[in-house]
Design goal:
It is a single chain. About 30% of the residues lie in helices and about 25% in strands. The protein has 8 helices and 12 strands. The chain has helices at about 25-40, 40-55, 100-110, 125-140, 190-195, 210-220, 235-240, 285-290, and strands at about 65-70, 80-90, 90-100, 155-160, 170-175, 185-190, 225, 230, 250, 255-260, 260-270, 275-285. The strands form 3 sheets. Strands 1-5-6-3-2-4 form a 6-stranded antiparallel sheet. A 4-stranded antiparallel sheet has the order 7-10-11-12. Strands 8-9 form a two-stranded antiparallel sheet. The radius of gyration is 38 Å and the shape is elongated.
């Protein structure tokens, strides 16, 4: 018997990351999603730098680069960094890592004063720092290609130092080689990626669209109808009709010119230069106005 495949048992906590098998279509969908997410890099970086702007006045450099990666294993929160969890409708959307010194400086720039007592940045985050973490989360989520998240319902919690974070996609926000501050991390969960659908491309309307549409409507072809005459016939005679029979037609002295089911004019039929023509004799709308008057 020919062996076509082999398998081995993986023990728990041995390191390899185990994920459900993805079909080809699912893999392509994930690839397109990550490509679309990468296109949001510039908008994300600008939104984050807008929150970090007060740090620049203290000599702290702005974020200069963002890199999106798919880590091979879970993230392990370091105790010397501040880790925040973002929750939405009782589900975790992601985690944010920022070093405690940068967070303390940012909080001092926003809410501090000369009378604020000095304290160690290694303490638990203050309420001001929680508000800043939510600002960072909100600014980032608002730039993601999704419209399913109400930023007013976002909640921020502190991550326990012993838990592992399973993040299939991680943004690394770097401050440049000249800055000693470690990069911030924006770790995205599977649930957040699931909320992000591939957005359809919005068609750009040309500036002369109203003019072109107006011209097209003016040249829209219509069919005019004239009833020249009628002839009544009982059902018994109708059943005896055959090819080559001649039916008398009584021409109307006045007929209606209609477009679809809407009458527009009264008309009379004449012969002109060998052609049958209709002469418009009265506007239907004017007659209706006269009757109402």
């Amino acid at each position: 018997m020919k062996t076509t495949a082999t398998a081995r048992l993986l023990k728990a906590n041995t390191g390899p990351r185990v994920r459900p098998i993805m079909l080809v279509q699912e893999k392509l969908a994930r690839t397109r999603l990550l490509q679309q997410l990468t296109q949001s890099r510039r908008a994300l970086l600008d939104a984050i730098n807008a929150i970090l702007a007060p740090l620049g006045r203290g000599g702290h450099g702005a974020a200069c680069a963002m890199t999106l990666t798919e880590p091979a294993g879970p993230q392990l929160p370091e105790p010397h960094h501040a880790w925040f969890a973002l929750r939405y409708q009782q589900k975790t959307l992601g985690w944010w890592r920022i070093d405690r010194c940068s967070l303390d400086q940012l909080a001092s720039s926003y809410y501090g004063s000369l009378s604020t007592p000095l304290h160690s940045p290694l303490r638990q985050p203050s309420q001001s720092e929680f508000r800043l973490a939510k600002k960072l989360f909100t600014a980032a989520v608002a730039e993601l290609p999704t419209t399913l998240i109400d930023v007013q319902q976002l909640e921020i919690t502190l991550v326990a130092g012993t838990m592992t974070l399973d993040a299939p996609a991680v943004w690394s926000i770097d401050f440049g080689a000249d800055n000693l501050a470690p990069p911030m991390l924006f770790c995205m969960t599977e649930h957040l990626l699931a909320l992000m659908a591939e957005q359809p491309k919005q068609a750009q309307a040309s500036g002369d669209l109203p003019i072109r549409l107006n011209q097209w409507l003016k040249h829209l072809p219509l069919t005019l109808q004239l009833t020249l005459g009628r002839h009544g016939m009982p059902v018994q005679s109708l059943n005896r009709l055959a090819v080559d029979d001649i039916i008398p037609i009584n021409l109307h002295p006045k007929t209606l010119l209609t477009v679809g089911k809407r009458p527009l004019f009264y008309a009379t039929v004449h012969s002109h230069e060998g052609q049958m023509v209709a002469k418009l004799t009265q506007d239907i709308s004017q007659q209706e106005d006269t009757n109402l008057g």
